[in-house]
Amino acid sequence: IWRxxxxxxxxxxxRVGPLVASDLNMYFHLIAxxxxxxxxxxxxxxxxxxxNRLRRNFPSALAxxxxxxxxxxxLEVEDxxxxxxxxxxxxxxxxxxxxxxxxxxxxxxxxxxxxxxxLASREKLMRELRYVHLNPCRAQLCKDPLEWxxxxxxx
Length: 155
Known about the structure:
Elements: E1 7-9, E2 15-18, E3 26-33, H1 44-57, E4 63-66, E5 70-77, H2 80-102, E6 117-119, H3 122-138
Helix pairs in contact: 1-2
């Protein structure tokens, strides 16, 4: 179950997801992209499989969006370095298994996962939450973020 805390709105009236303010925790934006514009998540079967694993492995994610050729995760962590390292390992395992689910492709499917972006202020966090949830709309996959099946915005 993903976090069901208070849903807040930013200055523009966008619902940006659950947020519990804490001085102890840090927020990070992780992105994983495929090589050569391969789209493993165009298949509903593969997308459903990956979505279930993302939800199971990152139950406290503030935001998650699965796009046809990449994904976004915004995580809240207490111990930044160790927690992010563990999150990247879990994400790598999910992505590696996605290759076997999506097709019989050999070799690397995913780009090297870049270092997560640290969201040091409430404003940066709000901007990234809005960016992640609007990503399917900007890619013209839907008109409203609530329409995108593989988004935590629907939670």
